[in-house]
Amino acid sequence: DWLKNNGPFDAVVDGANVGLFNQGTYGFNFFQ
What pTM was estimated for this model as a whole? Predict the structure, then answer.
């Protein structure tokens, strides 16, 4: 389990970063 290996704090930070990165960079700028 990823959460057990990395801890809840890393999961929250990485999840937020990935979500923003995917939405901002890939979702809108690159493909539209």
Answer: 0.22
